[in-house]
Amino acid sequence: MTKETEDQYKVVATNRKAYHDYFIEEKFEAGIVLKGTEVKSLREGRVNLQDSYASVHEGEMFLHHCHISPYSHGNIMNQDPMRVRKLLLHKKEINKLLGKTQQKGLTLVPLRIYFSKHGHAKVELGLAKGKKLYDRRESLKTREAGREMERAIKGRKRDE
Q1: 64-94 as b/e, with b when 16 or more CB fall inside 10 Å?
Q2: Which residues contact 58 (CB under 8 A, 6 or more apart)?
Q3: Right CATH number for 3-131 from 2.60.120.10, 3.40.50.620, 2.40.280.10, 2.40.10.120?
């Protein structure tokens, strides 16, 4: 994330495991419908995106298995932490995503939740294709090789 985007957004949670388990082909931004004290809980950063996914049901997009913890100063009106939440997208975008997710092996995975500069809660969805075990190993090898090169370059600069 660049400095410009950090000024515009306050990132609440990221789904690092998504980049490990999937190839992200495309990214989409969607609003999220929250109830009661969920917004305050989000501002505290009490959200877990691990194992969550989005799906289309009857022409509407929903986010499943996203855990937003109950607000610490809330009351009996707190919502269920694992409830299904509606995502806000244009009908054209939903139809496009529905067509792509019906292809073999594509799914919608939330990559991060953030607040826009206007204070609206947003979810960044990634159109993802699952990695095989050997793909994961290969990406770990390339990442480690890059780190080794950086260390070698850094060590050489110190010697000079």
Answers
A1: bebebbbbeeeeeebbeeeeebebbbeeeeb
A2: none
A3: 2.40.280.10
Per residue in 32-66, pLDDT (tens digit) is 999 888 888 888 888 998 889 999 889 899 999 99
CA dist 106 to 30, 53, 93, 98, Å? 18, 11, 16, 10
Q: Of 58, 47, 51, give the one whose Cα is nearest residue 122.
A: 47
Alpha carbon distance, N-terminus to C-terminus of the chain: 32
Task: Give the domain ranges of the chain.
Answer: 3-131
In terms of pTM, does the model score above 0.85?
no
